[in-house]
Each structure stands twice: as structure tokens, then as C-alpha cells.
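We modelled each protein-ligand pair independently. The example shown here corresponds to the zinc ion entry; the chain sequence is given first, followed by the ligand as SMILES.
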Amino acid sequence: MILETDLGKFCVHVRHIRNESTRKTEVSIHPYPCVSQQRPCGTITELVGVSSCHPKDAFDKAKGRKLAIERAIQHLSRDERKSIWTAYLGKHPPSR
Ligand SMILES: [Zn+2]
């Protein structure tokens, strides 16, 4: 998905991995667009976050995605994180 934040566009890739031994969600976030050669500044690297589902818990895609994003952006500044969450929640409003 592409998030349009007030700091610019970000590309967010979400991958749910679900098999017999693993249930996890991987998220990578980087400035838009996808192709690194098209980023002339080359200053911002990709941010990656992973969340794993406990074997006893139900696999919840929305929850896994949120947690993985949280981990991917945890080292950004408060303002950057806020912009990304605002854009994300605009696309994925919390169910309650
Ligand atoms: Zn991309």
C-alpha cells in the first residue's frame, strides 16, 4: 500500500506468513517509489518490522500488521511516526 503522509509518500509492504511452524507478519516501509534507483537522495533505507503470533493465540492479520509497522518505525522521530500512523489509520480505521 502507499501512504500519503504530510512528510511525503511511503510505500508499505505487508507479508503474512502462515504455515505449520510459523505465523508471522513482516512489514517493510520505505519512501515512495519502490525502485531504489529512483531515489536520488538515497539517504533513507528500508525499515523492517516483524511480529510473530503466539501458537496459542488466534492469527489476527490486522493486529500483526499494526505491531509489525510499530516495530518498523520505532526508531523514527515522534513526528514521523505520527504522520505515518495518521495516514495508515486513514486507510485502516480501527474497528472499535
Ligand atoms: Zn516498495
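The chain has one domain: 2-91.
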